[in-house]
Design goal:
The protein has five helices and 34 strands. By secondary structure, the chain is an alpha+beta fold.
Length: 511
């Protein structure tokens, strides 16, 4: 029986202290406590907001603004694993700790056909750098390793990601997903879209370019930004091509200082040193709305390849709002989601970019694609991405995997009949020759070459060096990546998918 992809329904809520952003819902524990989450394409675990994430000094609506909280003490199935430093977005300056444990996880609200997974690794987070809860859909595993700096200890335990669990349990056809962040400014608010084990073909124009997952599985979705320009203008905003990480965990677009200065000149925006944001006053906002410029990001496989896909972003995709819940912001205001990168490790295309781009990641083939979103009111077109060893199915939206339904012409049929007849004659002659040869061998007492009965092992070799961050694909598909050490540092993804490892002493996932 064919396994269908899982289409995860969005929560219909728009949240965030720097958005608003379209969220999904996860139920943590037993009975499930539902929280609103953002998607992380980098993190392998789901994170819920801890009750300590809102204090008496916070506004009274803090819990609601953070998408609700998960009280692990109210769950009958919670199994404590320990407190670890989050190993996510360290390069961008994000910090925080997570209380890790095993618990039941429900993928969506009741009544939506939501699946419940048991004994899934999850974390509760209080840190406000990660303001909303997160659903990590990266397929690498979480490895918890003892460390003297941890508050409690878990001795070398490895736990699968949500995506790997779904794949192992035959809930999805492959280790893959299709995702776009949604765009509140399009039509009558277009929510985010998440399909596990496939993609929604109605949400994008298919690109002709397939990109390879990078060897560093903590930063595997790397693209070459060859140029950034303003549509119908000679203005160039990126002085030189750069390699950038696509990461739905964070909101902003991080570019080199020279590029940011080009944006400042082109759009009249000013950098606020205290908040480290480009805050936009009402006068500037009205001028930018009237201008309604469209930016074009030319995305390629690397810095020089001539094949590119142009992703266009209207000014509305940059017209965001930041609240006083954001660090060092004194008054709610509009802002331009551009950040100054200190070095090339910070070059990032965040959720702002994914409002207009549709990401498809196929970890069993170690590739992904970036596609221009389309905004039309029409039914979904869900396509499965089958495993490489499957007999039928879609490899990628750019693959010619469809089957023709047109009939054959009489001439073609005649050619097939004649060819088949000749083939049968040749096969008959070959069979007679081999039969005679075999008989001669038997009469002479000799033996033909004996074929070896050795078969390849069904288990892929494991990575020995966690620093290589390479993924392995096992016989049935991609084996789940692992996180080693108390700091969840490097992540490993098994088979087929680049396996990422996180050192669990600091459970830091990039966001």
């Amino acid at each position: 029986m064919d396994i269908a992809p899982i289409v995860v329904s969005p929560s219909q809520s728009w949240d965030g202290n720097d958005g608003p952003w379209s969220c999904f819902a996860l139920g943590f524990g037993s009975p499930p406590q539902f929280v609103r989450v953002l998607i992380s394409t980098t993190c392998p675990q789901p994170w819920a907001i801890d009750p300590l994430g809102c204090t008496p000094t916070d506004p009274p609506d803090c819990i609601s603004n953070r998408g609700n909280r998960f009280n692990k003490n109210a769950s009958s199935t919670w199994q404590e694993k320990g407190l670890y430093e989050l190993d996510q977005e360290l390069n961008l300056g994000y910090t925080g700790n997570g209380n890790f444990g095993l618990d039941n996880l429900t993928l969506g609200y009741p009544g939506s056909g939501a699946i419940t997974l048991e004994h899934q690794i999850v974390a509760t987070v209080a840190a406000k750098d990660f303001y909303l809860a997160t659903w990590g859909i990266a397929p690498r595993p979480t490895n918890l390793t003892s460390d003297p700096n941890a508050v409690t200890f878990a001795a070398n335990e490895s736990y699968q990601s949500v995506l790997s669990t779904l794949r192992q349990d035959d809930k999805i056809p492959s280790l893959s997903y299709g995702y776009t962040a949604g765009a509140q400014y399009r039509l009558t608010q277009v929510s985010a879209s998440l399909t596990l084990g496939g993609y929604d073909a109605s949400r994008f124009h298919a690109s002709d370019i397939t990109l390879k997952l990078a060897d560093d599985n903590s930063r595997d979705l790397v693209v070459g930004i060859q140029s950034i320009s303003i549509l119908d203008s000679a203005t160039t905003l990126l002085p030189n091509p750069i390699l950038s990480f696509v990461d739905a965990t964070v909101s902003h677009i991080w570019l080199p200082l020279q590029a940011c200065q080009a944006f400042e000149t082109a759009f009249g925006i000013e950098h606020d040193d205290e908040s480290d944001l480009y805050l936009v006053n009402e006068t500037t906002h009205q001028a930018l709305v009237a201008r309604n410029a469209t930016l074009v990001f030319a995305i390629g496989k690397d810095l020089i390849n001539t094949e590119v896909v142009n992703i266009t972003l209207p000014y509305a995709s940059f017209d965001l709002q930041v609240t006083t819940a954001y660090p060092n912001v004194k008054n709610a205001t509009r802002y331009f989601p551009l950040r100054r990168a200190a070095n090339d490790t910070q070059y990032t295309l965040g959720r702002t970019f994914l409002q207009e781009a549709y990401l498809i990641a196929d970890y069993e083939r170690s590739n992904f694609s970036i596609n221009q979103c389309r905004f039309v009111e029409e039914p979904s077109d869900i396509r499965a991405i089958l495993a490489p060893n499957a007999t039928n199915g879609t490899k990628s939206p750019t693959s010619n995997s469809g089957q023709s339904t047109r009939g054959l012409s009489p001439g073609v049929i005649a050619a097939i009949v004649i060819g088949s007849t000749l083939s049968l004659l040749l096969l008959s002659t070959a069979f007679l020759f081999l039969w005679r040869k075999k008989r001669r061998v038997q009469l002479s007492g000799g033996s033909e070459h004996k074929q070896s009965d050795h078969s390849p092992s069904a288990e892929s070799p494991r990575l020995q060096n966690p620093d290589t961050l390479e993924c392995e694909l096992h016989a049935e598909g991609m084996a789940p990546p692992e996180l080693h050490g108390i700091s969840m540092g490097p992540l490993e993804m098994d088979a087929g998918v680049a396996v990422a490892e996180m050192n669990v002493t600091d459970v830091k996932e990039e966001r």
